[in-house]
Amino acid sequence: MALSTQRASAFLPSADQSAPPQWNYDVFLSFKGVDTRNGFVSHLYHELQHRCIKTFKDDPKLERGTTISSELFKAIQESRLAIVVVSPNYASSCWCLDELTKILQCMKSNGTVLPVFFNVDPSDVRKQSGSFAGAITEHEKRFREDIGKVKRWRAALTEVANLSGFDSKNQCERKLIEKIVEWVWGKVHHTLRLLDSTELVGLKFTREQIDLLLAPTDDVRFIGIWGMGGIGKTTIARLVYESISFHFEVRCFLANVREASEGNRLVDLQKQLLFPILKEQITQVWNEEWGTYFIKNCLCNKKVLLILDDVNASSQLEKFAKEKDWFGKGSIIIITTRDERLVKKHDMEISYKVQGLNDDKALKLFSRNAFKKFEPEEGFRELCNCFVNYAGGLPLALKILGCSTYKRDRDEWKNELDKLRKIPKIEIFNLLKISFDRLDEMNKNIFLDVAFFHKGKDKKKVIEILDSCGRCGGINALVEKSLLTFDILNSIVGMHDLIQEMAFQIVRQESPEEPGGRSRLCHHNDIIHVLINNTATNKIQGIALSMVKLEKADWNCEAFSKMINLKFLEVDNVIISSIPRILPNCLRILKWNWYSSKYLPSNFQPNKLVSLEMQDSKLVRLWDERIDLPNLKYMDLSWSQNLAATPNFTGIPKLQMLDLKGCENLVEIHPSVAYLKWLTDLILYGCKSVKSLPREVEMDSLIYLSLCGCSKLKKIPEFSEQMENLSKLNLSGTAIEKLPSSIGRLVGLTSLDVRNCTNLLDLPSAICNLKSLKKLCVDGSSVEMIKVRRSQPNKSRFWWGLQRKAFVLGSLHGLWSLKLLDLSICGLCEGDIPVDIGCLSSLEELNLSRNNFVSLPASIGCLPKLKSLKANGCQKLQQLPHLRFGLVENDFYSIRIYTEDCTSLKMLPKLSIKNRRRSYVGFVLSCVNCIGLVENEGCDAILGMLLIGLDWGFLQVPRWNIPTFQIVIPGSRIPEWFNNQSVGDSLIVELPPCTTSIWIAFCAVFEEGAPVDHPNPPHDLSTYFRIECRPGEGGPVRCNPITKGHLLSPHLWVSCLYHYVLDKECNQMKISFRTFYDLPDRIYCSGIRKCGFRLVHKQDVEELNQIMMMNHSIDISTKATSPHNSHNSAGASGSSHQKSLCRKSYALSKWFLTKLVKIFSLFLTTAIFMKSFNNSKKWGRIGLLIWRVTTFICFFGLAPPYFLLLLKTLIKAVILKRAAKFLPT
């Protein structure tokens, strides 16, 4: 049942209400496009739509003339409110002024106008002064003959300026939009009609019950909605969801939980719930257990609205909402179910049984579908009452019966009613057969086929199968009759359970006693009866047998020889010992998993076959000779481990999907596969015996090609110029030695995976032609290094020819779309990473772990969208380049830097950020076991990074339930700045009254330790900490699995949280830490030596920011010293003016010292430069000039990195030139 939201002056439709709502729009937006369309207005429109506020915003493509269009005139009249965004160029537009005049004319009597003065002074609007004076003067010149129009415009501007509104002056755009949306919501929310007049007539779910759900409370509430199938449970749940979802941080409607459980797809629903939180980490949800783990740990401090629709078992509920403490305060969990026992068992606070409709409301719903209005037409009321009585108040039955009588005359209504009277009233399912009887023969067969074989399947594939049976075009007719539905993406075929049961009953009546006489079989008892007793007949058109668990059976398969009209055969999870000697040639679908014979019947020629699926079979081959299968589109032989060869594909020209994954003994791929023009997916994953493929492929439609795990495949085919559709190419784990140069033709390729290709020699230069490439994975690939190209080939440098194992990466120029680059475990040494890696303008994630370089190219620091850098296990790495992060407006960043086990790392990276006042989610720096950092960096640096991170933009981030800032670094001392410290794993803090803190900073020192004694040694050591406010309840337990199980030395961990975790009346807080190894039995350990805490105030960040403004290029080690001595009591940080001056003076003196060192170095270098040309006055003057310019630039911090590099290169070249005459020729 479709759901839409409308506005009206009354909540429920009155008895005589048949007219549509007065307002078609809640808000009309008037604005000058050039000023605000792509900025302020775009954001405002998005927020209004998010609140379900129906807003009219004109299309920029509308033709603009000198007068307002009739379309906009009508939209203004049909809008309840108008928002007028008055911007600097608003008055220059005749169109805008006409809009304004019409808005004021309409809204005086029936609505409200809200002016928003965007970058303009309201007095200029009122008096038409400033920029408005010039615009009005131009209009007066243009409309000399119609000066009255200009006068009306002046009056409208004056009138709108006198209205109460919003001014953008002195407030950020985001806050302004929030205020506007809240004002609009206050005007329209009470007009929300929860019962849509077209679909939801008569539901017994009142406004008072909705208000009960919205009642302010911090409790987590579980609500059960239960009743029989078709009674309207799902519709009510959707209604509630649409009405209140915007009040929650996380909201999710999970439909058809029962079906997902039966299809082992609960993990997909868990991912749907978790995706807004985990985003790119959603791949970590491997199974239902992991999904449950993430749900209870990621949602424990979020206000959640979760709808679980059609739950029929407690086990399903436990995967999503077993306990209340899985969710944050104010959360609402609603389940719909047919089983009242499930509601009682889970102890729901609110239990709502959905009742059938009374006669009045049932008549409204029936009339709405039979006449498209709420009241019966004259002369039909008595007949309508008869239909309503037979429906028994079931909404679904009323809707279907109403549709079946739409546009029928009285005689046809009487005939339908006579049929109804012959059906027992207690057999409610039979009422639905009325619509079935109205179908023609073809649509009846389509309906029964879908009910038995295609419910929940892909719409496109279902239509193809039905077309092959000569049953085309009927799907949409069944949807119109409310017998079928499509999901929200219009891709999955659905059917209500009652209607499906009705279909089963119809077929059962074909032969009530003997299943072999029915047209379709899907209940396993009926199928077993037919096979064991050999009672099959030629009436059987389809069989679908699927056992819950894999079973062996000794059935008589000779019954298949009698099924000469069999079109659908699906057998799953059954190993039948006797295999049929004959299979019907008229099959359209053959799905027989665990097929136990080596061959198909020799006389099997299914030339109408559309889909062939035989997973886990014992087939050795399909057919020895070529066979013509002109309609076959899907072939799935995956995990058939005895399969040795594929068939000849010449006679299968329309094949679209070929899945051979897991066929480990497959040796021969027929060459004809290369010419399948319609093939979109070719999957050879895990085909370990495949050694060769066709020399060239011409698969014009191919989108996905997987050769992953083909460990004996040494060469892949050349690609034709027509293969522009190939998007994903997976070559991981193959034995290929090189990629063909024709790979550059794959202009649509977005993902290339060559991981663990140990024989791969190089990446061809043609890879730079892949403009669409977003993901490139090469970790685990290694080859012998080729010689470095020399600039002077005649003068060999013998020491450049050293041989070693490494990965040779060519130029990366041209890969502008690449978002992920994985070069881990590639044996990369110093200089192997191309300098032009900085040209990857879209790169977000870079993985360089477990390589052998000492440093990284400085160009890595110039990647504008980089969010994640991993260099774990690079034991020779000594330093990282200066990393410059550029934040994008309205993009929530989580910056992550990992250098774990880099034992030679000497210093933390220098960090800087563009657009520092833009918001982002968090920052993670993990330097676990970087023991070289102990003496050089220490805990002071980590403290500096903490405050710098807060200044970067954490003050503006939303309220996330996880720590937004985390750093781990070797160290055993907690900075004195943490003014609350304790030995052990817990501490109690007394909080000052009326605290104004904005952040809570935590720290802890982890003990050095060896791995735990366990048969399966863990890798990660997870940390939980709990916040308990007094008075108040205990806060949620937060998990921070950032540190490793084996620490070479004590480590300092620092994190911070937004202050909202504190209760306003809290005067004491207890923080406790627990650590445990990530094992099923959670082995706890005493890994915390001491811990610390501090409330962070705005003054802490502001003072640091003042120091930063003196020199934006101060690196982290310099910054970290400034706040070290600011350890006052909580709430008093930075209040001492004397200490503030001391910190500033210290930082300033260090700044001058750094500059003097730079100047001295430049002076010394230039002196050498000038000395080498002491006989030349010209060179001496040039050198002096260079020294002066360089000194000035460097002193004021203006020198970009490439300038200094250029200077060094110039000096080196000149010195070498002077020394050349002393070298032997």
TrEMBL record:
InterPro entries noted in UniProt: Apaf_helical, C-JID, Disease_R_plants, Leu-rich_rpt, Leu-rich_rpt_typical-subtyp, LRR_dom_sf, NB-ARC, P-loop_NTPase
Catalytic reaction annotation: NAD(+) + H2O = ADP-D-ribose + nicotinamide + H(+)
Chain segments annotated as transmembrane: 1151-1170, 1182-1203
Matching SMART domains: LRR_TYP (SM00369), TIR (SM00255)
Residue span(s) of domain TIR: 23-188
Entry keywords, A to Z: Hydrolase, Leucine-rich repeat, Membrane, NAD, Plant defense, Repeat, Transmembrane, Transmembrane helix
GO MF annotation terms: ADP binding; NAD+ nucleosidase activity, cyclic ADP-ribose generating
Entries under SUPFAM superfamilies matching the protein: L domain-like, P-loop containing nucleoside triphosphate hydrolases, Toll/Interleukin receptor TIR domain, Winged helix' DNA-binding domain
Gene3D superfamilies for this protein: Helical domain of apoptotic protease-activating factors, P-loop containing nucleotide triphosphate hydrolases, Ribonuclease Inhibitor, Toll/interleukin-1 receptor homology (TIR) domain
Bias (Low complexity): 1124-1137
Pfam families, alphabetized: C-JID, LRR_13, NB-ARC, TIR, WHD_ROQ1
GO annotation terms (biological process): defense response; signal transduction
Region described as Disordered: 1118-1137
EC number: 3.2.2.6
PROSITE patterns linked: LRR, TIR
Group of enzyme by EC: hydrolase
Protein name: ADP-ribosyl cyclase/cyclic ADP-ribose hydrolase
